[in-house]
UniProtKB/TrEMBL annotation:
This is Arogenate dehydrogenase. SUPFAM superfamilies: 6-phosphogluconate dehydrogenase C-terminal domain-like, NAD(P)-binding Rossmann-fold domains. It holds the Pfam family DUF2520. Signal peptide: none annotated. InterPro entries: 6-PGluconate_DH-like_C_sf, DUF2520, NAD(P)-bd_dom_sf, OxRdtase/DH_put_Rossmann_dom, TM1727-like_C_sf. Residues 17-131 form the Putative oxidoreductase/dehydrogenase Rossmann-like domain. Transmembrane segments: none annotated. It comes from Clostridium chromiireducens.
């Protein structure tokens, strides 16, 4: 296969590669719009909901399919952009067809490519291609999609249609191993879904003071944004602020006294993690090394040694550690 820069992807014979979508939801339509923006030819959309599927085809100026065999015939690459629990059902449908020279990709971050094992047995190349992005609308800003990373797992080889597609998109990407899928998805959930939950808990404490959700969010927005910007500019260790860093025992005690019972374990676990970063920062200050997490391993022994060194020089941090349940 050869790649014509700045236009459609083509096969050896010069035929244009066409990309189809099974699933006309937020992810499928957003990616379809983005692919078209990048000069990639779409075949169209297939879905169970006819109205949504026709709308997706209209938005992307592509074809509407009411028969799965037709979209298979008309596409070289098909993205399955359905809810996770539907993917294996679609895979069973795909097993009825000859899929030689076809590539099938699902966009789930939690499922391995081998959820499409029946498609593979029918001759297809299979992939999990996960955009690291929260799609909240079919009208996703295309400029935002320019910035996202893609993670890829599956039948990777240099001359594949998928690699050519990724190169045409120009997005940064990395290849992950099949056995790392759960760890990979966990990372995404921590910084997306669980962060949302953590922010909601913080907003809840301002609501107790009488603020509504909108005012609470607006009040906290500069704090959240400033913290995130600092992390990207200086890293985690060098962005530390707050009572755990300062060794402010009385503030931590007051926090614990007003915490809702359900939030106490969460507060302590997260604060203990902060204390590990404080220990790393303190270690860097003492030996003159650059203070980043790259400078130490993630072994429990290494972390415990850093914390012990911190306590030698700071009894107030040792007391905070005890308050947080770090010592019996």
């Amino acid at each position: 296969m050869r790649l014509k820069l700045g236009c459609c992807i083509t096969l050896h014979g010069g035929d244009t590669i066409k990309v189809g979508f099974i699933g006309p939801g937020k992810v499928g339509v957003s990616l379809g719009r983005y692919f078209t923006h990048k000069g990639i030819k779409l075949s169209g959309f297939y879905g169970r909901n006819i109205e949504n599927t026709k709308q997706a085809a209209d938005i992307t100026k592509s074809e509407f399919y009411d028969n799965i065999q037709d979209i298979i015939n008309e596409s070289n690459i098909i993205f399955i952009t359905t809810p996770d629990d539907i993917i294996s059902i679609i895979d069973n449908e795909l097993s009825k067809f000859d899929l030689k020279n076809k590539s099938f990709c699902h966009t789930s971050g939690s499922l391995k490519s081998n959820v499409l094992c029946n498609a593979k047995h029918s001759g297809a190349l299979i992939y999990s291609i996960h955009p690291i992005f929260a799609f909240s609308s079919k009208a996703t800003n295309l400029d935002e999609l320019e910035k996202i990373y893609l993670s890829i797992e599956g039948d990777i080889f240099d001359d594949s249609d998928i690699i050519s597609l990724i190169k045409t998109l120009g997005n940064k990407h990395f290849i992950r191993k099949e056995e790392d899928s759960s760890t990979y998805h966990l990372a995404n959930v921590f910084v997306s879904n669980l962060t949302l939950s953590l922010l909601e808990i913080g907003v809840g404490y301002l609501r107790k003071l009488g603020l509504n959700e909108e005012d609470a969010l607006n009040a906290l927005k500069p704090l959240v944004k400033g913290n995130v910007d600092s992390i990207y500019e200086k890293g985690f260790v060098n962005s530390l602020t707050g009572p755990v860093l300062r060794g402010d025992i009385s503030t931590v005690e007051k926090h614990i006294s007003v915490l809702e019972e359900r939030d106490k374990d969460l507060y302590k676990i997260l604060s203990l993690n902060l204390l590990e970063l404080v220990a790393l920062r303190s270690h860097g200050n003492m030996d003159g090394t650059e203070k980043t997490q790259e400078n130490y391993t993630n072994s429990n022994y290494e972390k415990e040694k850093l914390i012990e060194d911190l306590f030698i020089n700071s009894k107030k941090h040792e007391k905070i550690y005890k308050l947080l349940g770090g010592l019996d």
